[in-house]
Structure formats: C-alpha cells, structure tokens
TrEMBL record:
Protein location: Cell envelope
Keyword Protein biosynthesis: no
Main location: other
Annotated GO biological process: transmembrane transport
Keyword Transport among UniProt keywords: yes
Name of the molecule in the record: Tripartite ATP-independent transporter DctP family solute receptor
GO cellular component: a single term: outer membrane-bounded periplasmic space
Length: 340
C-alpha cells in the first residue's frame, strides 16, 4: 500500500511525474519491522502458493504486523538457478527448491530421494523424509550455509507427458527430446530410459513445449494443471516414475539475525503450511486426472515393470549407489527396502 494522499496523487499525475521522482517517501501503511522474501517456481494456483500465502497472513496476525512474509511465486524473482544464487547471497530469505533440482548442483546427495520407483506410497514417503534420511540431508544442506526448515513441501509423484505419441514403455521414449529439471539424477534417469533429456528451468518449460524445442516433459498432475502444461501437451503416461518435494531453505546469515520469537513464529507457520499442502496434494493426485482429461489430455497406464527393468539393466541404481555412498544408501534402504 502506497501512502499517498489524494491531493498528492492528483499532483503527481498532473505533473506527469512519479511519486519517487518528486521525492515522496513511499512508506507502507504500517511498516513491518521484519520483512522476509519467500520465493519459488510454482504457479499462483498451485497449493504451495495458497498455503504460503496463508502462512503469511497468520504470521502477520500473530505478530500484529511486526513480521511480513512476502510471497513471490511463479519465478517472479527469476529461474531456480537465479533464485538459488539469490538465497545464497541473502537477497532472498527463504527459497523452496527440490533437492533433485538446482539445489543438487551444490549438494549432490540431496537428490537421493528422487531415484526411480523407490516409493510405493505417501506413507513410505513421509516416514522416510520426516525420518532419518531427511535429517541426514538437512545436515548436508547446512554445510553450504543454507538452513532447511523442518518439513518438506510435496511436489508429487511424476508422470510423463508428450505432444507426439503415448508412452507405454521405454521404447516409446527412444531418442525423444524431453525436458527435465536442472539436476544430474534427472538427466541420468532419462538417458537410461533411452531418451534425449534437455535440462531446462521451469520458467522456460511452457515455451520450450510450445515451440517444440522438446516434445515431452515429466511432472506432477498439479504442475501439469497449474502451469498450464496441459495446453501444450496431448498425452500423459501415468508412470509415477519418481516422487519429488521441496526443501524450504533459509539464508543462514539472515535467519540467525532474526530474534528467536520471530524465528519461531515464521518456522512454525511455514512447517504447518507444508503439512497442509501435503494433504492438498494427496487429494489432487486423485481428482486432477478427471479435470485434465476434460481439458483434452489423453491418459494411459503403462506397465511400469519395463521402465524399472531398463533402469536396472542400465546400471542406474548401482552407479548412483557409488555416488551417494554406502552410508546414505543404507539409510534409504532401511525405509524403502533393498534397491541393488
Ligand atoms: O521444475 C519442475 O518441473 C518442478 C516445478 O517440478 C520442480 O521444481 C522440480
């Protein structure tokens, strides 16, 4: 809210000058003592954005306006690559990013939960990520001076969409130009399937599909809907080939400079928002299929065994086991069972 009187406003328009040019100070009606920038790539209508805004309202109410959480969805502050640099530098205070996405360029092991077909259901997912594996990954992220909030935000089980033909087995992916996010695990998985993956940030995905730079992509139904991917894709294979989620990471220097009571109110509301968003996503994973089918997306249900076999035959699990190391691998297998 800009605090200009009607008279001042009339004057600026009459003179054709902006308030700043005239030297007015543009104060907020009730300026917050602490303002935190919270940024991410998801669309305005994604449940993550809704729950983030809800957290902002609660934080404002609980602190009587002393603390303001400024929510920037939809890549408003840049691509994931840009936002990661900004949260490192302190220009962004809180950033949601998948450990499999650009965050893995700094913390390679953070991508381990993205391995193909390791989670049968949400119970196993949250037992793993709220448990020992999540704690181990938090420690690795802290080493690069980012502080993860306790709870991860769900980014859903992922499926493959294409504009050209339905995908029933890896043979249908052979040589296909498919967009994957910017992370080595994604590239490796789709290379092992036999496709030709291209790393592209989420803010460029829609136009990459529209201009046919790539013929396909893979994502949650929530993103296929809210980022309008459905408008530029025809087929959706319900592969559920991997599951993804976001760490909410804070710039450490900015975070430790906040008083303890402010840290408490912000982290408590952000973690609650994450838990509520998980429920939203679980519901949407059931209901969105029908909604998207009505919009013209043609679904098929492949037998996923051929995809799993391709990963095993291609040495996918054994080579990533070497990269992640025995300690993390053992923690993961404790939750999800033997993988190699
Ligand atoms: O970039 C994507 O596809 C997204 C939104 O799902 C992630 O951030 C990994």
């Amino acid at each position: 809210m800009v605090n200009l009187t009607r008279r001042a406003f009339t004057m600026t328009t009459t003179l054709g000058l902006s308030a700043t040019a005239l030297g007015f100070s543009m104060k907020r009606a009730a300026a917050a003592e602490y303002s935190l920038k919270f940024a991410f790539n998801l669309a305005e209508t994604h449940p993550i954005t809704t729950r983030a805004r809800e957290a902002a309202t609660r934080i404002q109410q609980e602190t009587n306006g002393r603390v303001e959480l400024q929510v920037y969805p939809n890549n408003q502050l840049g691509s994931d690559t840009d936002m990661l640099s900004q949260v490192r530098a302190g220009g962004i205070d809180l950033f949601l990013n998948s450990g499999i996405n650009v965050l893995s360029t700094m913390v390679p092991a953070a991508s381990i939960y993205g391995l193909g077909f390791i989670f049968p259901d949400y119970d196993t997912v949250w037992k793993t990520m709220d448990g020992e594996l999540g704690v181990a990954l938090h420690k690795l992220i802290e080493k690069v001076n980012l502080l993860p909030m306790e709870k991860m935000w769900d980014n859903g089980f992922r499926h493959i969409t294409t504009s050209t033909h339905p995908v029933n087995s890896p043979a249908d992916l052979a040589g296909m130009k498919i967009r994957v996010p910017v992370g080595a695990l994604w590239t490796s998985m789709f290379q092992t399937f036999g496709a030709a993956p291209a790393s592209i940030n989420f803010n460029e995905l829609y136009s990459a599909l529209q201009t046919k730079v790539v013929d396909g992509q893979e994502n949650s139904l929530a993103n296929i809907k809210t980022a309008n991917i459905v408008e530029v894709q025809k087929y959706c294979a319900l592969t559920r080939h991997m599951w993804d989620a976001f760490f909410c990471v804070a710039n450490k220097r900015n975070w430790v400079s906040l008083p303890a009571d402010v840290q408490d109110v912000v982290s408590r509301n952000i973690n609650q928002a994450a838990l509520d968003e998980r429920q939203d996503m679980a519901k949407l994973s059931e209901s969105l299929k029908e909604v998207l089918a009505k919009q013209g997306l043609v679904f098929n249900q492949p037998d996923t065994e051929s995809f799993r076999q391709k990963l095993r035959d291609g040495g996918f699990y054994t080579s990533w086991r070497e990269k992640y190391g025995e300690e993390l691998w053992a923690i993961l297998e404790k939750s999800v069972g033997k993988l190699t």
